[in-house]
Amino acid sequence: DGAVPFFGEHQAGIVTPAQDRLHFAAFDVITKDRAKLVEMLREWTAAAARMTQGRDAGTLGAVGGQPEAPPDDTGEALGLPPSGLTLTIGFGRSLFRDAAGVDRFGIADRLPAALEALPHFPGDALRPEISDGDLCVQACANDPQVAVHAIRNLARIGFGVVSIRYSQLGFGRTSSTSRTQTTPRNLMGFKDGTRNMKLEDAELLREQLWARAEDGAAWMAGGSYLVTRRIRMTVETWDRTSLTEQEAIFGRDKGEGAPLGKAKEFDEPDFDAKGADGQPMIAKEAHIRLAHPDFNNGAHLLRRGYNFVDGTDGLGRLDAGLFFMAYQRDPRKQFVPVQRSLARADVLNEYIRHVSSGLWACPAGVTGDGDHWGRALF
Ligand code: HEM
């Protein structure tokens, strides 16, 4: 269970074949001191470079330092392999300008136009305390302990500079981001990630995943914008819905994952095909029709979400759903129009509720030892 290179043109954890586990954390910056923040980002980068290679967060390690001092690694990943760990950083809008418009760290002029606050969508039930944030780190790995260890150590290093605003564990990927992967299933039991942007789609990634200097924010060249949405599923209601209805909602069959009217998972959907009753095989309000690039001005997303179950809600129901994450070159042209069409008409809405939202500017990769997270920004 090997190591994914940390250094590179783009950050790892975006087109990296989606690992099985997630620990996502959003942070608030609690210092006003720009130098402290930059110094922490430098320390985070060094720790991330080490942890992704299966090493301790600090150079002395969990047990190699002075016995009188707290160790510079918390120790719970000792003896575990790198497990494909990737750590991906993102910057939120509030880092550039707070709610009152104050330029907290002298970077307001670098706020990318693409980081425009997401609009309110019909049906949104967002909880502010688990939305937004100044910074985020997406930790993905094939071992949950490795992902949790990484976030915990970053939080430890950031003591006094940042505090965790909220975090989310995910236990099963709901997307493939490479054609070498089989398509996993979400908690509604459907294959998810069939028609996703993938590592192998070089031309599409160039056009729709990576930001460019000419998009407006030069420091974001080679980066990508991440939208996170915690989407609660009312699985109890879903589980009392007939198979035919479930399949009609997505526009795909549940076993194979084929578009309705077709036989195989990767067959192209035919949105004009009509059944014996004269009705479209894929309903007008089916999820895969409303989300399809043909009906959204050609917009694609690189979805990289995870299943979650966070215990129960005290009302006899599981607190379960999909932690949706999607990367793209410009959310104003991609996530926003797609989510607008879904929020307006998707029959899936009866079974889901968006409760948290985040929008993040994830810069290009760290190129080597002299470079660090946020160097191009500050
Ligand atoms: C496709 C599930 C929310 C965008 C799909 C598919 C499933 C699915 C089963 C078909 C397989 C595939 O092509 O991947 C869900 C569930 C959701 C959810 C259970 C919520 C709990 C969203 C949201 C967006 C979105 C919020 C974006 C705003 C897409 C896109 C496709 C897709 C772009 C591919 C459409 C195509 O090109 O055929 N989703 N989805 N989904 N979904 Fe979702």
From TrEMBL:
SUPFAM superfamilies, sorted: Dimeric alpha+beta barrel (SSF54909)
Protein name as annotated: Deferrochelatase
InterPro entries (alphabetical): Dimeric_a/b-barrel, Dyp_perox_C, Dyp_perox_N, Dyp_peroxidase, EfeB/EfeN, TAT_signal
Residue span(s) of domain Dyp-type peroxidase N-terminal: 11-171
Co-factor binding details: Binds 1 heme b (iron(II)-protoporphyrin IX) group non-covalently per subunit.
Domain of life: Bacteria
Major enzyme class: oxidoreductase
Keyword annotations from UniProtKB, A to Z: Heme, Iron, Lyase, Metal-binding, Oxidoreductase, Peroxidase, Signal
Pfam families on file: Dyp_perox_C, Dyp_perox_N
Function in brief: Involved in the recovery of exogenous heme iron. Extracts iron from heme while preserving the protoporphyrin ring intact.
Species the sequence originates in: Catellatospora bangladeshensis
Listed GO biological process terms: iron import into cell
PANTHER family: DEFERROCHELATASE (PTHR30521:SF4), DEFERROCHELATASE/PEROXIDASE (PTHR30521)
Catalytic reaction annotation: heme b + 2 H(+) = protoporphyrin IX + Fe(2+)
UniProt biased composition (Low complexity): 173-185
Region of interest (Disordered), ranges: 173-192
MF terms (GO), sorted A to Z: ferrochelatase activity; heme binding; metal ion binding; peroxidase activity
Enzyme Commission number(s): 1.11.1.-
Necessary cofactors: heme b
